[in-house]
TrEMBL record, chain A:
Pfam families: OB_ChsH2_C (PF01796), zf-ChsH2 (PF12172). Residues 14-47 form the ChsH2 rubredoxin-like zinc ribbon domain. Residues 51-116 form the ChsH2 C-terminal OB-fold domain. Gene3D superfamilies: 6.10.30.10. This is Uncharacterized protein. It comes from Sphingobium jiangsuense.
From TrEMBL, chain B:
InterPro entries: Thiolase, Thiolase-like, Thiolase_C_2. Residues 262-355 form the Thiolase C-terminal domain. Keywords: Transferase. This is Acetyl-CoA acetyltransferase. One of its GO terms (molecular function) is acetyl-CoA C-acyltransferase activity. Pfam families: Thiolase_C_1. It comes from Sphingobium jiangsuense.
Length: 133, 400
């Protein structure tokens, strides 16, 4: 699995992942969650924001299952489900897209929680796990 | 909203293409030059009369830059060299840019072109490091860089909302293949059945192999001129009645706003039809961007050609065949003709609207409308062409 592209906007998010915490950025001007992370709020254009820990739970709003390597060098085990998750407590504004650790039986509407990969020396990545109801 | 004075002021006066293949063995510049010379000749022009160039920017190894084409075509003067970075929405947007330059009186004849060796020399956009930051790396997470991971989740949400499954995509793939078999330049000529579609391997669910756009080498080009300059052509005049470009900023209008499958198409189509002074009932043919069957069906619904959740059923009932209510993707589209990121959709609309109709079906002489050899739609007057996600669109018209 390739590490994500990291930049100044997203650095606090990835630092949080390394610490095992899912971090979200909200606007100090209008309170709206910013996703993806960025310096200026697209709603009120405020430059101020705060990062806070999220609960990491949410609901699947979109999904695909990769059955065939999409490009050379793609080394994740297949089939690989990728889900889009609307995270709780973000006013529907933070939809995180990440791999799902599962047997591929997930469906839109399913509830998930966030865990983090733990490969030696590598950037930890968020990964979703189905919540048993 | 643009002024009505833009309406029908410009025309697509010439079209051309190279062979489409899996491995051309030629440079993108050679392919683009072949398509450009064909389009220029088709417009009844000399290369030196081209004074503007518009192409797609999708990485350095993709299509030759305008400066390369000025040199390749030996143009004495070039007054517009514009690269559209709109991806699958670039083609309609590029035609609009060309028409605006002509309408403004800055250029006389603008060439819109793309030449690429997609499978034999893939562009750097296939490399995730090519996307420095912003939304895109988050959309295709952790190395799964593929249009199906970008759009598939939204298609899956739309399928879930309407109770659709992959088998609902089969009829569109089969119909477009049937159209391609009446198109001599189409890559895919083998017959396809619903069963073939359902037996094809999964690539990225919800898409099987036969749900996906093909990937090819080749080039296409067209010329935009003032409608006045195009009058007298043996092809008649195919005007640009309305055009819109732009971007919604994301596959869906914005993450976290409303449903998860509404593309820019809904908003753009309303403006486009108003600009053209038409309603959906006036549309005779539609060439809608088809990276995947499911995306094409979403475009059908969000451009208002079928009710929400009903596009697949309408295809199955024949509403979008060559003799249906609206002929859809009559060339075979990206699924079966070939992929120049939407330029082929524009060219097919022009061919269908021309006086002589399409010139690369299997008819000898006059069109027979016999669907074993003829893909010409019966006297179409208005065409809708749509870029990916409805981030761009054209209404083209056959001048009476
Ligand atoms: Zn704000």
């Amino acid at each position: 699995m390739r590490p994500p592209v990291m930049d100044a906007d997203s650095a606090p998010f990835w630092k949080g992942c390394d610490e095992g915490r899912l971090m979200g950025q909200s606007c100090e001007g209008c309170g709206t969650f910013r996703w993806p992370p960025r310096e200026y709020c697209p709603s009120c254009h405020s430059h101020s924001s705060r990062w806070s820990g999220l609960g990491g739970t949410g609901q699947i709003v979109g999904l695909v299952v990769v059955e065939r390597a999409p490009m050379p060098g793609f080394d994740a085990p297949l089939p690989l489900p990728i889900v889009h998750v609307e995270l709780d407590g973000t006013g529907g504004k933070m939809v995180l897209q990440a791999n799902l650790r599962s047997d591929g039986k997930a469906a839109i509407g399913d509830r998930v929680r966030t865990e983090f990969t733990d490969a030696e020396g590598a950037q930890r990545l968020p990964v979703f796990v189905l919540q048993k109801s | 909203m643009s002024e009505p004075r833009f309406r029908d002021a410009c025309a697509i006066s010439g079209i051309g293409w190279s062979a489409l293949s899996k491995a051309s063995g030629r440079t993108p510049a050679a392919l683009a030059t072949e398509a450009a010379l064909a389009a220029i000749a088709d417009a009844g022009l000399e290369p030196a009369e081209i004074d503007g160039l518009v192409t797609l920017f999708w990485g350095a190894r993709d299509t030759p830059a305008p400066s390369e084409m000025v040199a390749a075509l030996g143009l004495p003067r070039c007054r517009l060299s514009h690269c559209d970075a709109g991806g699958g929405a670039w083609a309609c947007s590029a035609v609009m840019a060309a028409a605006l330059a002509v309408h403004a009186g800055i250029c006389r004849h603008v060439l819109v072109y793309r030449g690429a060796n997609m499978p034999s020399a893939p562009p750097p956009s296939a490399d995730p490091d090519y996307w420095p930051s912003g939304q895109r790396p988050w959309s295709e997470p952790f190395g799964a860089v593929h249009a199906a991971t970008l759009y598939g989740p939204h298609v899956a949400a739309w399928m879930h909302a309407h109770g659709l499954s992959n088998s609902d995509f089969a009829d569109l793939a089969v119909m477009q293949r049937a159209h391609a078999r009446l198109n001599r330049k189409a890559m895919m000529q083998a017959p396809m059945s619903v069963d073939d579609h359902q037996q094809s391997p999964w690539i990225i669910r919800p898409f099987r192999l036969l749900d996906c756009s093909i990937f090819n080498d080749g080039a296409m080009a067209l010329v935009v001129s003032a409608s006045d300059a195009a009058r007298g052509s043996k092809h008649g005049v195919v005007t640009i009645r309305a055009a819109l470009g732009g971007s919604s900023g994301a596959p869906v209008r914005a993450w976290g706003s409303g449903d998860y499958w509404t593309l820019n198409a809904e908003a753009l189509s309303r403006e486009l039809y108003a600009q053209a002074g038409i309603s959906v009932a006036d549309i005779d043919i539609a060439q809608l961007y088809d990276p995947f069957t499911g995306m094409a069906l979403m475009h059908v619904e969000q451009f208002g050609l079928a009710a929400a959740g009903q596009a697949a059923r309408a295809v199955a009932e024949g509403e979008f065949g060559l003799d249906g209510r609206i002929a859809l993707n009559s060339s075979g589209g990206h699924l079966s003709e070939g992929n120049l990121a939407g330029l082929g959709h524009v060219i097919e609309a022009v061919q269908q609207l021309r006086a002589g109709g399409v010139r690369d079906d299997l008819c000898d002489g006059a069109h027979s409308f016999d669907r074993s050899c003829c893909r010409q739609v019966r006297s179409p007057h208005i065409a809708l062409v749509a870029g990916e996600c409805g981030d761009s669109g054209l209404i083209l018209a056959r001048e009476a």
